[in-house]
Amino acid sequence: MSAPNQQIYVQQAAPQQSVMSKLGMGAVMGSLVGLTIGFIGGGFQILRGGPGPRGVMGTLAQYMLSSAATFGFFMSIGSVIRTESLPSSNDAQWRAAYRAAGHRVAMAPRMHASS
Fold first, then answer.
1. Residue 34 and residue 68 in contact, taking contact as beta carbons nearer than 8 Å
2. Contact between residue 99 and residue 105 where contact means Cβ atoms under 8 Å apart
3. Per the UniProt record, which residue ranges are transmembrane (predicted)?
4. pLDDT, tens digit, 9 for 90 and up, residues 21-76
5. DSSP assignment string, 65-88
6. Alpha-carbon torsion (34, 35, 40, 45), positive or negative
7. DSSP assignment of 17-70, as one string?
């Protein structure tokens, strides 16, 4: 008779992103959201109040660019703040949760990017 099979969970951690890459990714995502919101809000404002002295394209561009700059700025800062964490505390919590459920946990070696 053979021994029962035990499941082993292996967690492989992805390399950490730099702060500048997080900042850039947040800025791009926020700018794209801001362009969309600026297009919708600016288009509605132009339909409601008229294009103004700059014309339709100038007014719409101003709404879109100001909204993209605002959203991009706050999203870049928010993405850096949101993704800051201590990897050791996350690993410890992950292992403790699986051990509490009665599973064996094997940790894969971390690959650190050379600077």
1. yes
2. yes
3. 27-48, 60-81
4. 888 999 999 999 999 999 999 999 999 998 889 999 999 999 999 999 999 999 99
5. HHHHHHHHHHHHHHHHHHH---HH
6. positive
7. PPHHHHHHHHHHHHHHHHHHHHHHHHHHHHHHH---TTHHHHHHHHHHHHHHHH
